[in-house]
Design goal:
2 domains; Arc Repressor Mutant, subunit A; three-stranded antiparallel sheet; mainly alpha; single chain; 6% strand
Length: 124
């Protein structure tokens, strides 16, 4: 997953510092539902390169997001959007993230993957 597919960008002319812009952008993507709980985020180094930022700038944003409970680091496994909601919702969020990852690996278009879920829900 890269910065453009996450909907993340930095405006060098903005008055807000780049790490603040990144923090706000990640929160906005989650709030809009474009970044689902359980979604894996790019590494600090990869995101810094994609956005043209210093590694320390992205690390500072990730650290603030983690302190706010928005993301969670899982050691060598990477950094993920934190799960929220009741236990049943969290299970569905994880299942949705796993399904989305599988669809991407299989090369299935998002619209086709949504249709498959819709048909499964309608059949139940």
């Amino acid at each position: 997953m890269d910065a453009s597919s996450l909907g993340l960008s930095i405006d060098p002319a903005a008055t807000a510092a780049p790490y603040e812009q990144l923090h706000r952008a990640v929160v906005a993507e989650i709030a809009a539902g474009r970044l689902a709980p359980g979604s894996k985020l790019p590494t600090v180094r990869a995101l810094a390169e994609q956005l043209g930022l210093a590694v320390n700038t992205v690390a500072k944003a990730y650290k603030a997001l983690e302190a706010d409970g928005v993301i969670e680091g899982r050691g060598r496994n990477g950094t993920f959007v934190a799960e929220h909601g009741d236990p049943a919702e969290r299970r569905l969020q994880q299942a949705a993230a796993d399904y989305a990852a599988l669809a991407r690996r299989l090369g299935v278009e998002a619209s086709a993957a949504r249709a498959i879920v819709g048909a499964a829900l309608d059949a139940g």
